[in-house]
Structure prediction request, 124 residues.
Amino acid sequence: MDTDNRTERRKTGDRGEDAVIRILSSQGYRLVVRNFEVHGVGELDCVFEKDREIYVVEVRSRQNTGPYPTSGESVVHSKRRKIIRTTSYLIAKYGWYDRNINFLIGQVTHNRAGMVQNVEIIPF
Prediction:
């Protein structure tokens, strides 16, 4: 019996985050926190550190079903503002006032079964 109560959409999103974490970890990035949430402000999907710099990664997944815009294009101005505002809480929590903060998007493409087909890491 399957006791996993997450929706299929959430499971697909988690697989996308897992794929981004695997790729960046293999490139020497260290995962610091996943799903950093500030109630009423927002959530950061993944936060990495490499060479004393911090990388905030917004993971966006999309099913590969045709000629649609990339999943990264769904990170609109209002979403970017929310990520930046949430990052200010992250900086305060970890005392990262002296660190460069970089914002990235992890674009993940899935097939109809929800399996990861492609991952691209692009600047915010």
User: Anything to note?
Assistant: The chain is about 30% helix and 40% strand. The chain has one domain: 8-123. The CA atoms of residues 104 and 123 lie 5 Å apart.
